[in-house]
Structures are given as C-alpha cells and as structure tokens.
Amino acid sequence: MDDPLLLAERWAGEGQGVALATVIETWGSSPRPVGSHLVIHADGRFQGSVSGGCVEGEVVSEAADVIATGSPRVLAFGVADETAWRVGLSCGGRIRVFVEKVAWQWDLATLAELNALRRQRRAAILVTDIATGSTRLVREDEVAGDPLEGELAARLRSGRSGLVFEPGKDEVFLAVHLPPPRLVVIGAVHIAQSLLPMARLAGFDVTIVDPRTAFATPERFPGCDVIAEWPQDVLPRLALDRFTAVAVLTHDGRIDDLPLRAALDADCFYVGALGSRKTHEKRGQRLLDAGASVAQVVRIRAPIGLPIAAQSPAEIAVAILAEVVDSLRKRGTQP
Amino acid sequence: MDDPLLLAERWAGEGQGVALATVIETWGSSPRPVGSHLVIHADGRFQGSVSGGCVEGEVVSEAADVIATGSPRVLAFGVADETAWRVGLSCGGRIRVFVEKVAWQWDLATLAELNALRRQRRAAILVTDIATGSTRLVREDEVAGDPLEGELAARLRSGRSGLVFEPGKDEVFLAVHLPPPRLVVIGAVHIAQSLLPMARLAGFDVTIVDPRTAFATPERFPGCDVIAEWPQDVLPRLALDRFTAVAVLTHDGRIDDLPLRAALDADCFYVGALGSRKTHEKRGQRLLDAGASVAQVVRIRAPIGLPIAAQSPAEIAVAILAEVVDSLRKRGTQP
Q1: Is B194 near chain A, with CB under 8 Å?
Q2: Where is the XdhC- CoxI domain (chains A, B) (predicted)?
Q3: What residues are paired with A248 via a beta bridge?
Q4: Which of A92, A255, B169, B286 is most buried, taking the most CB atoms under 10 A from its CB?
Q5: What is the spatial distance between Cα A12 and Cα A19, in angstroms, rounded to a whole number?
Q6: pLDDT, tens digit, for every residue of A198-226?
Q7: Quick check: A309 contacting B, CB < 8 Å?
C-alpha cells in the first residue's frame, strides 16, 4: 500500500501515532507539487514524498515531535535544485510543509470518509486550519453555500491544492482531491491511434473499445486498456462517471449510439462524437427517438474537437484532446 | 533513395522511360492518402505506394503501356479492406490512380524545379490536367492572380491534394507539396517533456534546445533532436523558416529572447512564449529596444497556448500543440 492517505488511515486505525506532512506552498522550482503527502509512523517508517528526497529526513524527525505533542507545525525549507544550471547560474526553490498528527485535532472518520470518496471517484476538498490543525471535508455537492464557495468551486475545476484565507478566520489549506480523469474512446480507428498516446501523456487513464477485433489490438494501442468487444457488453465494466470523457469515433451508430447515450446518462464531463453535421443530425434524431433528452443531445460535442482546422488524423486527435482538457477544467461553467 | 519524385527525376534524367502513378481520389477506407506516388521504371522496377500493396501489380503493368504510348490514363480500383470487420460487415474503399509518363507532356525541368523547392522547404502545387497530362507548377508566391487562386491558397494551408475543375477547363489534380512542419522548443522544461512527444505524434519534426546540460538530455527527450547549447550558437543550424514553429519556454530572457527574435525574423508560422502577462510585457519591451518591430512583437502568442484552462505541464503542452496546429492550418488567414 503506497498511498499515504490510505496508509495514514490504516496506521491510525491500528491505534498508532501517525503524522501527515503536506506540501502547502512552493516557490521557484520544487520537486513535488502542492498537496503532496508524506505519512510518518511513530516507529519511524514513512511513505510518500514532499521533496523527492531533499528534506524528508528532517520532516520525519519533526514528525516525531508532532506525534508526541499533538501540535501541528509548519516547516520551511530551501530546496537546492538537483538539476542545477550547469553554466553558472544556480537555481532552486523553497517549500513549506505542514505536519499534523493524524486523527488528533480531527476525527479519524474524516480521513476514512475522504478515502472512501476517493475510492468512489468522487471529488472532495479537505479544508485544514493551519493554525489549529482542525479540518472539515467538503464534498463536491456540498460546495454551494460554503463560506469558501467560489474558491472551492474553482479548485474543483483546476484540481489545484493551495492556501487561502477563510473570511474572518485563519489561513486554511485546501487539499483538493479529484479522481484521476479517464478517457474512453469508442472506435479503434486511425485518430484513436494518436489520441490515446497523447491523452496518456496528458495524464488520462485511457480505454479503447471496438468490437472489430482487427482494429482493437494491443499492437495498435500499446500500453492502453484495449477491449475488443461490443460496447453494450462492456458498459458496466467501463463504469462511466463524471470524471470520464467519452469520444465515439466509428461513424457507425450500431457501435457508437449506445455508449454515447450511456455517457450522457452518466454525466461524463466530455461527450464527443466524430462525424459530419449531417451524420450528427441523424445521430441526434436516433438518440431522441431512443428517449434521450434534448438537453443531453445538445451536450454532445460535434463536430468533435476544437476548431483548429485539423487535417490529419493526428491533428484531429490534438483538437479532440484540447477539447477534452478544456471541458475537464471548465466543468460546470459551460452551458 | 526512397522518394518517388526524386527517383522519377533521376531515372528520367538518365533518359529512361519512367511512369508516375498518383492517387487522385479515394472513397471509404483506403490505405494511402490522395497524392501518394508510385514511380515505375521502364525495366519494371518501382518505388513508393498507392495502396499499401493491393493494386501495385496492376498499376505497374499499366505503367508499361503508358511508358510505351505516352498517353496518360486513370485507373479505378476497389480496395478490399485488409483489416476487415471480423463480425460480419465487410467494409472497404475505392481509389482512382492517375498514371502518366514522366517528362512527356511536360518538361523534366518542372519535376526538377519541384524537387528543388521541396529541398528548400518551400511550398508549391503541381497542377496536372487529367485529360491531357499537361502540368504547371505554382509556387506559394505565385498563387495571387492564378485562375485557381482561392483553391490553391486553401490547399496550401490544408496540405490536401485533390481534384478540382479549373474554370472553363478540364478536371485538374492539385498535388500539394508542403514542407514537413517542424517544432523547435527552447527550454527543456517539464512542459517540453510532454510537448515534444505529443508533437511527434502529431507529425512534427521536433528539436529541443537548452544550454542547461542537465535539462537537455536524450534521456528526458527520447527520440528527439536534443541540442544542449546556447541558442545563439545553434541558430544557423536550426534553419528556422516559414514551416517551423518556435516555442520558448524558459522564462529567461538570456535564453529565450534571441531565438524569439530569430523566429520572428524568419517568419515562422508560429511563435509562442511562455510566461505571465507581466513577464511578456517586459519581454516585448526588450524586443522593441533590440530593434524588433511592433508588428513582430504582437505576432508572439502569449500567454502561450489556446485558452483551455490547462493546469498541469502536460495540459499546457496540449494547449500549445493545439495552437501550433491551428496556426499551421490557418497560415495567412490570421491578423
């Protein structure tokens, strides 16, 4: 078990003293992003990383004090850049790390709930008061009406953790937990052969589905989850959700229509369909006839991809991926 | 020598009978795009491809007749899809192939000039009358005033070859020759580690330049042309031109400014610079102070990348690549 938050829950659940260290601020170049965790057991074991090795030793040592006293603290470090400028200029970065005792100021149930939400691929933000160490967990559906509503909503789109001042209160750290975004492509066509590797580079978990066994092969899609079956047979397994993008690329309603409808029903953050306007008109009519709502049909991105005048299949893949990222990062702000 | 047009020039220059076959139209799925060439020597040797192997034999056989008679002809083929639908539906495509005798209706000098332009990375379109086989070569700077001006200009952006009707004349085939687009990235930073492999997938030749030897390593940029030197020392070697995109990503004027100015002077189709608006204001002032024109400075894409709310370095890479493709395919139509 490598996940620091799962490990923190387990160790604390066993009644052990556990500290959690979190990168709450960075300047310049820093090896690990804001929100990165290191979990430390009272016996000195630790897991995770706040700096890629530069300052972990000191954090672990401070964590022993935090476990003993229960008082959270903020540590500041200058991080020498290991990959220093070899031609005369040294550059580096600084980080601030918050160290708290797990399940001390706050309940272990909060950590367990956060981990449960993560397992369920649901978004949430853990709000921690840096001065006191007290925390509260805000699920995505609880953001409306929160004192930090605007800030929380923006961070649920960007996925960025960070420090803010809660109105009339102390500085709080917002640890933003978004499910890893996924991209499911229906149609193992030429465009998909570019789209999937690009999407993997962009941080998406990718799955390709096509019942045509000659198209959906591991050779054509190295490193991808390749499913050479009819969409209707694998839809439950795909577990489409709000952090999944679905792009249908076969032009063939017998393959595309069902997963398209399923993506709309699952409120996937992106639903795109390849095809001319004429093809898409017919498709829209079929979906309406099959019971889809007008609101659903107009959500489909078609013609697919940002209008960058893409020519080759690989350029169309770029247009689609840019549209997927745009939809992910502007969730809830678009009509 | 694998290039069919270079081989055609060489063989014809040696006084041999040579035929050139060109895919002029496709329907459905076809293995090779419109504009693909197969060159056939009178002795039966051939190079290139019009169908990935399906119909080459028949084309070579017809080519012997064309070489003997000098009369061009159009061949039509149904192409069975090798990657056929394994679940019941057969799908396939059709292609039309134009076969002509090289340097017969037209001068060998035309072919030599086309090949010279290709070597110089200059765009041109070879216009061939399908009925007569007569050709004329239109360079990019000769498009204005041409009877096909609008069509030629659009195809010099899209890069797509194809058939059109010349006003009051026969059907003509436009063989569009664009130099392979290149992307030069200054700054071997995190964004570049995603941008370069994505750009390669999208069909760009990629080069990365950074004087910081720890950043610019083959390990960080597998398969890329990695140059760990100061831009000023390698600019002549980079041979920036109108089919090159330049993105500067270091934030450091000592590294970025010179190649930025060189990219503007070379009229690169895309010039982008990473940095906040404030950073870019200072950069713009430095460039003006150094003698750049206002028209040049406003051409710089900054903030870099399409506005897709990209968060991670890899997402910023997607935003940049989409902007590069957009600029390539809308060359000359933007302010």
Answers
A1: yes
A2: 11-78
A3: A186, A273
A4: A255
A5: 9
A6: 999 999 999 999 998 888 999 989 989 99
A7: yes
Q: How far is B227 from chain A (nearest CA, A)?
A: 14
List the domain boundaries for chain B.
Answer: 1-104, 105-179, 182-329
Return all residues near B125 (Cβ < 8 A) that are at least 6 apart. B137, B138, B152, B155, B156, B174, B175, B176, B177
Strands (DSSP E) found in chain B: 18-28, 37-41, 46-48, 73-80, 92-101, 124-129, 135-139, 162-165, 171-177, 182-186, 205-209, 225-227, 244-248, 270-273
Which residues in chain B are closer than 8 Å to A197, comparing Cβ atoms? Answer: 197, 201
Q: Report yes or no: B91 at the A interface, CB cutoff 8 Å.
A: no
Kindly list the residues from chain B whose CB atom is less than 8 angstroms away from the CB atom of residue A321.
318, 322
What is the predicted pLDDT for the residue at B168?
Answer: 75
Q: Which chain A residues are closer than 8 Å to B323 by Cβ?
A: 308
- Closest-CA residue to B304 (of B250, B254, B259, B235): B250
CB of A314 less than 8 A from some CB of B: yes
Tell me the per-residue pLDDT of B233-262, one tens digit each, with 9 for 90 and over.
Answer: 999 999 999 999 999 999 889 999 999 999
Over residues B75-101, the pLDDT tens digits come to 998 755 544 333 222 345 788 999 999
pLDDT in tens, A246-305: 999 998 899 999 999 999 999 999 999 998 889 999 999 999 999 999 999 999 999 999
Question: What distances in angstroms separate CA A303 from CA A140, A249, B40, one per listed residue?
Answer: 30, 11, 41
| DSSP class per residue in A66-101 | HHHH---EEEEEEEE-TT--TTS---EEEEEEEEEE
